[in-house]
Amino acid sequence: MQSTLNLSGQLLIGQRRIAGNAGTFHAINPATGDTLAPAFSVADAAQVDLAASLAQQAFDTYRETSGEQRANFLEKIADGIEALDMALLERTMAETALPLARLQGERGRTTGQLRMFAEVARNGLWQTPVVDRELPERQPMRRPDMRTRLIPLGPVAMFGASNFPLAFSVAGGDTAAALAAGCPVIVKAHPSHPGTSEAVAAVIQAAAKECGLPEGVFSMLAGPGNEVGQQLVSHPAVQAVAFTGSRVGGLALSRLAQQRTQPIPVYAEMSAINPVFVLPQALAKRASAIATGFVDSLVMGAGQFCTNPGVVLGIGGADWDTFCAAVATAADKRPAGTLLNAGIHRAYVAGVARVSSVTGVELVAQGQKSDGSCAAQVSVFLVDAETFMAAPALHEEVFGPCSLLVRCRDLLQMRAVAEQLEGQLTATLQLEPADEADARQLLPVLERKAGRLLVNGFPTGVEVAHAMVHGGPFPATSDSRGTSVGSRAIERFLRPVCYQDFPTALLPLALKDGQSDHATPPA
Ligand code: NAP
Predict the structure, then answer these.
(1) Are 512 and 503 in contact (CB under 8 A)?
(2) What is the pLDDT of residues 201-212, one digit of tens each?
(3) 306 lines ligand 1 (CB under 6 A)
(4) What is the DSSP letter of 513?
(5) Do 392 and 422 touch, CB atoms closer than 8 A?
(6) Residues 310 and 359 in one domain
(7) Separation of 159 CA from ligand 1 center, angstroms?
């Protein structure tokens, strides 16, 4: 049966649906410029306070739920999202202009993440118990019995991303990780897809009720213009922030979090240009195939992936010229993509103009043009390494299908460029076995620069798995110790507590003898 969304435009605070008191806004279809019904209401300060206070009240009850209860909650959310079927995807398409196949894939990824975190909650290993048993005879004094586990941090403020309206939004990886950890979540919905956000939030609200969880375990607030987000991050009940978006936004929220009476961690994923290093033998053997793979990766999702390859480096010569010509051939045919909203479109046009205005930058290829609203023409530029290194403007992310080919003199210069790059989500090596010695020269630099290193692939397409790292040094993220994709994403919402000389009756279950297979470190 075809489901309908019945959007109300209201805020979902705990188990309540409430009209926001601070005005209204609409979603805009980026492909047509049309305003979409209904009007969505904006939370005022009292409504932000209500959501945060309910989360605080829910925390002690929610964090004591069993892994099985949390797993059921997460699985019900996944089932509920699937039950919305085409009604959800049609609304998301209208709000984002992302194509159906892409959104079907993203929905699978979202429900897959929720189910992966259900397993993580169920097996309880995230508590990582560690036991140092008592050494009563130790001289000069007895060593006490010490047992440590991780516990949840508290209510998390989560900012949905514009470019993944399902997988990095209301029920995305950050929410799934925080709920699995035992943290209540308050979502600040992204204003580009408020209908999608409300529909998914309603699923979470219903799942919380069905599972008998305290109502403050989840709320969703809306409102463009920064105020709602700032009030939320400043609220004393909030204990951590998860964010995916612009560098400016992530830094503003990080500063705000540090200025609080009690500073709190902000896990912001912000900007990266994801360098691809094409080593000499790979260039000689596979120039055309690498060029096509690169352009496919660049234009995917209209270039709106945080792992988009924004810079490709190689060593100048005949093979490099063949590669550049193949990039031109592959990119020239590509149709324009539709960007997610008018603001991102303006930023793309300005970013392409910024790159092309640098003296020494040449145009290699432009895709097809379109007069459509928010249309982005594929743009690839070429520059030599000296110019690249001297122009900080070329190191900034241009969010959309724009990339820069950087011609290096030799491997030393390629390494010098790598050394000068900012922190990245990914760094990719295209190599053949005969390139391995050169790769060894680059790897120590790349390990310092990026959260994920790839060989002979392209960075777009982030697997949801236990070993995935979607993070990296600033400005890729605000805290390079974490990942926002994969099961280790839960670690951002946990902190260790040590129980010293506790009687068994008072120990948390995970730390009682015989409860876990943790290793006891040697005395
Ligand atoms: P954004 O402008 O950073 O907004 C993301 C969310 O953060 C929105 O909910 C926004 O709410 C809130 N926000 C932003 N600045 C804030 C501030 N100073 N105080 C409080 N809340 C704030 O990101 P976007 O709209 O998704 O896209 C804009 C740009 O971000 C793109 O052009 C691109 O450069 C970058 N981007 C990067 C990635 C990535 O994965 N690296 C992903 C998406 C976007 P309000 O509406 O209230 O401002």
Answers:
(1) no
(2) 999 999 999 999
(3) yes
(4) T
(5) no
(6) yes
(7) 9
Residues 6+ apart with CB under 8 A from 189: 160, 169, 170, 197, 198, 201, 220, 221, 222
At 469, give phi and psi (nearest 5°).
Answer: -125, 120
Ligand 1: residue whose CA is nearest its atom 35: 246
* Same domain (yes/no): 251, 381: no
Q: Give me the active site residues, please.
A: 269, 306
pTM over 0.85: yes
Which residues are CB-contacts of 289 (< 8 A; sequence separation ≥ 6)? none
What integer pLDDT is reported at residue 4 of this predicted model? 82
Cβ contacts of 82 within 8 Å, gap of 6 or more: 107, 111
Q: Tell me which residue of 335, 323, 315 sits closest to 294, measured CA to CA.
A: 323
Q: What integer pLDDT is reported at residue 92 of this predicted model? A: 98
Query: Which regions of 163-231 does DSSP assign to beta strands (E)?
Result: 185-188, 218-221
b/e per residue 197-236 (b: at least 16 CB within 10 A):
bbbbbbbbbebbeebebbbbbbbbbbbbeeebbebbbbbe
- Residues whose CB falls within 8 Å of the CB of residue 291, separated by 6 or more in sequence, listed in order: 323, 326, 327, 329, 330
- Ligand 1 contact, 230 CB (< 6 A): yes
Evaluate if residue 124 carries a pLDDT over 50. yes
pLDDT in tens, 318-336: 999 999 999 999 999 899 9
Range list of β-strands (E), 82-222: 130-132, 146-152, 156-159, 185-188, 218-221
Rounded distance between C-alpha atoms, residue 14 and residue 387, angstroms: 54
Q: What CATH number corresponds to the domain at position 80?
A: 3.40.605.10
Whether the Cβ atoms of residue 436 and residue 406 lie closer than 8 Å to each other: no
pLDDT digits (tens, 9 = 90+) for 18-40: 999 999 999 999 999 999 999 99
Residue written as tokens 């309908």?
Answer: 4
Mean pLDDT in residue range 219-245: 97
Q: How is residue 297 written in tokens?
A: 């990766």
Structure tokens at 147: 């047992």
What's the gap in Å between 487 CA and the centre of ligand 1? Answer: 24
Residue 434 sits in a domain whose CATH number is 3.40.309.10
Two tokens, residue 455: 């060989």
Per-residue tokens: 191: 């204003």
Structural domain range at position 18:
10-270+477-497
